[in-house]
Amino acid sequence: MSPVTLRAVRENPTVRDYLARTDRCMVSMGYTEHGERHARIVAEWARAILVRLGRRGREAELAAIAGYLHDIGNLVNRENHALTGSAIARDILDRMGMPPGEVADVMSAIGHHQEENGEPMSGISAALILADKIDVHRGRVRKSNQMDFDTHDRVNFAARRSVVRVSPKRRAIRYELRIDTRLSKVMEYFEIFMSRMVIARRAAAFLGCTLEIVINDTRIL
Ligand SMILES: [Fe+2]
Ligand SMILES: [Fe+2]
């Protein structure tokens, strides 16, 4: 049997259905976008981070798969979604014929992606954490009335651009953000994202890199 690829996972009817339902759950709870867009971006970045660091092949593909499925547990509940998500991923990947060792790697990465109780424990897991925590963007805000925005919405809405760059030479992973400070102060970004930055920093360290953060062309970490 040929190895399970990100492409096959994206095209899997159960994955499509579950991701769409996940996003609908998040809409009804007033959360930012957690559907196909977020899944795709995290998958692509997780893969790119490992490839740029020279860790190609199966590890990078598994990071992409973990990235694509990482938030699918929100279908059950936001609470403990990393754990439910890893069990959902196991069922799906098992049925797709992925070998148990690879399923286990994906499960651990998904189970450890949240800053509250996660810990980078493999290259796949570290890449997933780094890709997930940088995805701040106005496209994730679904409320149409700015009067209804909470701080999360405001920061996401103010984020014009957020990218991750990897410098293999300097062993540096850099988050670059452009924030419209008329809509949200840089301080608000820190209020919300400090705990995410802490786990992202540990993830970078796991990959033998330092984490740098640049907001509006100013290096702040
Ligand atoms: Fe999550
Ligand atoms: Fe996420």
Q: What would you call the structural class?
A: alpha+beta
The proportion of residues forming helix, as a percent range, comes to: 40-55%
Oligomeric state of this protein: single chain
Number of helices: 9
Distance between the termini: 46 Å
- Anisotropy-based shape: globular
Instruction: Spell out which ligands are present.
Output: fe (ii) ion
Quickly count the domains.
1
Radius of gyration: 17 Å
Strand order of the largest sheet: 1-2-3-4
The share of residues in extended strands comes to 5-15%
Write down the CATH topology: Hypothetical protein af1432
Task: Please write the CATH class name.
Answer: Mainly Alpha
How many strand segments? 4
Low-confidence segments, ≥5 residues, pLDDT <50?
Answer: none
Q: Give the SSE string.
A: HHHHHHHHEEHEE
Largest sheet: 4 strands, mixed
Residue-averaged pLDDT, rounded? 93
Key descriptive features of the protein:
221 residues; alpha+beta; Hypothetical protein af1432; four-stranded mixed β-sheet; 4 strands; 53% helix; 11% strand; binds fe (ii) ion
How would you characterize the overall build of this protein?
With 221 residues, this protein is an alpha+beta fold. It has a single domain (6-219), classed as Orthogonal Bundle (Hypothetical protein af1432). The chain contains nine helices and four strands. The protein has helices at residues 6-11, 13-28, 36-52, 58-69, 81-95, 100-111, 123-133, 151-158, 186-206; strands spanning 159-167, 172-179, 210-215, 218-219. The chain has a four-stranded mixed beta sheet with strand order 1-2-3-4. Strand 1 and strand 2 (172-179) form a beta hairpin. Helix 3 packs antiparallel against helix 4, helix 3 (36-52) crosses helix 7 and helix 6 runs parallel beside helix 7. The mean pLDDT is 93. One fe (ii) ion is lined by residues 70-71, 81, 113-114.
